[in-house]
Design a protein that fits this description.
two-stranded parallel sheet, alpha/beta, single chain, 2 domains, TIM Barrel, 4-stranded parallel sheet
Length: about 170
Amino acid sequence: MIFPLTVVNEVEKAVAEHANKPFMIGYRLSPEEGSNPGITLDDTLQFVDRLANQNLDYLHISVSDFWNGSFRESDRTKSRIVKIYDKVGNRIPVVGVGALHTPDEVAEALETGVPFIALGRELLMEPHWIEKIRTGKEMEIRTTLSKKDQDELVIPDPLWKKLIGVKGWLPVVD
């Protein structure tokens, strides 16, 4: 924990010295590594407990699927994001992310108590996600990608090849 906590402290010092208006500081992390040895969920719970005592504005927990439990721990049924929120949620806001494609899925995730949800892949597939919700067009939200969507989404060839080249990362249909 020494290195990442040192980085947090140095960022806080830089903000205090150089920011002339409010400046949010957050910490984004993936909570677990599937390999052994590697970071376990227990390691992360200890780490986020320490991070919650820093002068951070939020923790962003990045996983491929919001609902997935631990890779290696015995309780694989409870979301890792929810476990982290349970550990630190009253001390620091938690941002969750991961395969929440529809407004109903986001609402269900918010019901866990996790106060913020980030959209990543969803905004790549549907750049007008928020606008469609605001205008009552939820049913028009794109939740899959077709190989013919590249031009409409204005995604350059190298990025497009990476996005569709990682099996299972984006729901690509023919």
